[in-house]
Input
Amino acid sequence: MEPDPNLTADAHELMPYTKLIGLEVLAASAEEVRARLAWTEERCTSNGIMHGGALMSMADAVGAMVAVANLPEGASGTSTISSATNFLRALRAGYAHAVGRPLHRGRTTIVVDTELHDDEGRLLGRVTQTQAVLS
Output
């Protein structure tokens, strides 16, 4: 799946930080958001491993997109209030791929599960976050 230039531009406009980190959006709906982030030396910690903060930034942005797509009527936006990350494998080349899906769509909070995979489909990590619904 290739990046969608319109969805990527929309994400960069709404969340300028996503442009800074190089996030590319592949697909977006209320049921699922897919994005990717390329491995580059500038996004690494020691030994050529993509920095966990880069992966968490991608997951947080994907979670926000899922939450916004599931806002209840009358809500103005969301804000991350909790995020739990488990890293399972290092990324040393290629892309990190994120797939975010809603776990809970409430009136005051939205909970999102985001899986992170490498190009081979191996699980890099999993992020569960809670987004507060803003009125």
About this structure: The first helix runs from residue 5 to 14. Residues 96 and 118 are 5 Å apart (CA to CA). The longest strand covers residues 123-134.
